[in-house]
Design a protein that fits this description.
- InterPro entries: DNA_mismatch_endonuc_vsr, Restrct_endonuc-II-like.
- Keywords: DNA damage, DNA repair, Endonuclease, Hydrolase, Nuclease.
- May nick specific sequences that contain T:G mispairs resulting from m5C-deamination.
- There is one protein chain.
- With 142 residues, this protein is of the alpha+beta class.
- It has one domain: Endonuclease, Chain A.
- Helices cover 47% and strands 12% of the residues.
- It has a four-stranded mixed beta sheet with strand order 1-2-3-4, sandwiched between helices.
- Strand 3, helix 3 and strand 4 form a beta-alpha-beta unit.
- Helix 2 packs across helix 4 and helix 4 packs across helix 5.
- 18% of the residues are buried.
Amino acid sequence: MKEKKPMTRSQNMARVKSKNTKPEVFLRKLLWHKGFRYRLNYKELPGSPDLYIPKYRVAIFVNGCFWHMHENCRYSSIPKSNYEFWENKLEGNVERDKKNYAQLESMGIKVIVVWGCEIKRMMKDEVVAIERADNLVCEIIN
């Protein structure tokens, strides 16, 4: 029988999806059931927001805590191996995000960022999901 080799970090990171992730799909379904209609990965706008709700001019980004360096989050850390590479890459992501958010806001589009850890909590606890969904609806409408 052939032994299974452990994946290298590179192979593992290459398997990470950028679209249609579980947290993103969860949020999409939640908003759809609340009656919101949206565009997915709308390339006409800076940063291609994960969801764009044209009626309310709202761009929603579902950010992974690792890839976008969510502050004070247990899922956000820079890998110890090849530290400089990862530090530059992740900090570059954060800078690009800031630039995209500023561009969107200058166009009169409201930016909402929903973090992966928030959605994980929502997926585990229905009470948290309902509460956060209501807050999100208020953010979109106002």
